[in-house]
Amino acid sequence: MVKPKSLLFVHDHIFVTSNNNEVYSPGAFPESLWSKYLDHFDNLIVVGRNGGTESAPELSFAKSSADGVEFIFVEKISSLSLLFKNSIKLRRRIKALISEVDHVVVRLPSENGLIAAHYADKLGVSVCVEVVGCAWDSLWNYGGTLSKLYAPIRYYRMRKAVSKAGHVLYVTDSFLQNRYRANPNAKTVSASNVSISVDDIQTTLEKPSSYSKIPEHIVFGILGNYKTKYKGIHIAIEALSKVHFPVASFELRVLGNGNPGDYEKQISDLGLEGRVVFYSPVPSGDPVFRWLDEIDIYLQPSLTEGLPRSLIEAMSRGCVALGSAAGGIPELIEKRFIHEAGNASDLAATITQVLNSYSTLWLESERNIRFVKNYDYRAIEGRRSLFFKEFSACRQIEIS
Length: 400
Hints:
alpha/beta; Rossmann fold; 2 domains; 9-stranded mixed β-sheet; 15 strands; 20% strand
């Protein structure tokens, strides 16, 4: 009898559960994500962290539960106290889980993923590393002194994990490949974890004439969690306070998870009361697209990034998009719309430049619509499916 092929997926993602024990994701882990693994494995075990129970998570979050998927929530080590309390128990648990499966996928950067990569190598279990962001950038921009001190250590650990893996998937075309080089003997693929359907892409810009002059009210938008400073919400707020607007009013809309109160003082100090509006998260898909359709200029002022799904979604709706130089963002939008990460003055200058050429922005909207068709799921799934097919058939590749 052939033993079913089992896969362990490991990350630090925080899931929430409903009252009937269904699992939901506040981020980009919908149930559709698991199909790319279940197409090649008989069952999937997902390791993450427990964010507690919500009474009605379906109103805000994407359902993550799916047939053939088991969720295991492990101990948190996100602070010094939790590190000392839970580290040994966490390592033992992840090691035990790896000993029971055939293959392991670790998504990095993540602490759970680094631990899993280490034990998969020790136990001779085939491991695939998905490189979706930069460990250095994520910690250095987290804000605290301890995070900055740990940044080079985690960066080194991630580089080591990638260099020892037999299979490596990158979500960018060049940025992460240059920072985290795979071993020459490893199987690699560039396949964004962002894929959309052409049905969700605007085929043409419906009203190019709307860019003939600056509207009396300009709506800026940012999509993403703002629990931390990663997404650069504070940079966008500061930048907008520096722009001299040639219109009656403007507004910044932010959709995601976080505490709006964290920004109240900054908004007040900069005199932007009533101009920054925070929206509660909505499920992915049509609700997000409808929200984006009300945005004139989309901002992605991230301090750290892999390849942002939200930016690609905004571009697919014909939004003019401005972004920082973090991660793979420069792979998506033109250089003139890029600002230095963390530099509010540079973003303000970019916004001013855009406003001064508002009548030509319909060209950029049409360019974005054409460009994101490269991220249609059919264009990406072919090479990603072949990659995971090869991974599922392999045994551990010895890399020296």
